[in-house]
Design goal:
Blueprint lengths: L1 H17 L18 H7 L10 E10 L2 H7 L11 E11 L4 E10 L2 H14 L10 E2 L8 E8 L6 E9 L2 E9 L7 H19 L11
Helix pairs in contact: 2-5
Length: 215
C-alpha cells in the first residue's frame, strides 16, 4: 500500500505544521479570485461532504513556504509553485472496500499563475502518480482544464488513480487507491473530482462550499 502511506504522510505533515495557523463547466459561474487560507480549508471536502467515507485527516490549509513547495511541487526548482499562496489536504478511507482518497489543493494569486502551473505539474509529477501503465479517462466538463489517469500503482497491482483540475485560481487533485481490485473505479474517482471542483468554484463565487457526494 505504497500510495496509502504517501497519502497519510502528506496529510499528516499538513496537520502537524498547519493546525495552528475558460470553457463552460459544471463547477460554477467561472469567477476566479484569489482564495484566503480559510477558504482553501473550506474548499477541501470534510466528513459532511463525504457520505460513506471516514475522515482520516481533517481538512487543513497552510501558507506556502519552502517546506510545502517541496511537497506540493516536487520538481526541480519546485517548478509549478510560482505565485502560490496556500496548500491544503484532506484524507478519507472507505472501510467497505479498503479505498483511500486524498484531496489536495494549491491556491495561487491569479488565474494566470494557475494556467502556467497546470502542465508543469501534470507532466512533471502528478500525471505519473497512477503508475507507468496508467490510462487516461474523461472527467466530464469540470473546471477550465482537467486530466485523469487510472492504473495499477501498488506493489501487487492495486488500483490507483489521479486527477488534476484547474478551477479559477486553484489547482486541485484527487489521489485514490485501493487495497484490492474493484475498490475504486473511474466513475467513483470522477465523482470525487467533481465534488472538489464544485467546492472550489463555490469558494471563488464567495459562497460557503457545500457540494457533496450524491448532491
Amino acid at each position: 500500500m505504497r500510495n496509502y502511506r504517501w497519502y497519510a504522510a502528506a496529510a499528516a505533515a499538513l496537520l502537524l505544521t498547519g493546525c495552528g495557523g475558460g470553457a463552460e463547466s459544471d463547477s460554477g459561474t467561472g469567477k476566479a479570485v484569489a482564495l484566503t487560507k480559510e477558504q482553501v480549508r473550506e474548499t477541501l471536502p470534510d466528513g459532511e461532504a463525504m457520505t460513506g467515507w471516514e475522515e482520516s485527516a481533517r481538512p487543513t490549509a497552510v501558507e506556502m513556504d519552502k517546506l510545502y513547495r517541496s511537497q506540493a511541487c516536487p520538481i526541480k526548482g519546485n517548478a509549478g509553485c510560482e505565485n502560490s499562496r496556500f496548500y491544503g489536504a484532506s484524507t478519507f478511507r472507505h472501510d467497505d472496500n479498503a479505498a483511500t482518497v486524498t484531496f489536495l489543493i494549491i491556491a495561487y494569486d491569479s488565474e494566470q499563475a494557475t494556467r502556467e502551473a497546470y502542465d508543469v505539474l501534470w507532466d512533471g509529477y502528478y500525471g505519473k502518480r497512477a503508475g507507468q501503465r496508467a490510462k487516461t479517462f474523461g472527467l466530464g466538463p469540470i473546471g477550465e482544464e482537467r486530466d485523469a489517469r487510472f492504473g495499477s500503482s501498488g506493489f501487487r497491482g492495486e488500483p490507483g488513480a489521479v486527477t488534476q483540475t484547474r478551477v479559477g485560481t486553484t489547482l486541485l487533485w484527487t489521489e485514490a487507491a485501493s487495497a484490492g481490485k474493484g475498490g475504486i473505479d473511474e466513475d467513483g474517482v470522477r465523482d470525487l473530482a467533481t465534488v472538489l471542483a464544485k467546492r472550489a468554484q463555490q469558494a471563488q463565487n464567495g459562497d460557503a462550499p457545500s457540494a457533496a457526494l450524491g448532491g
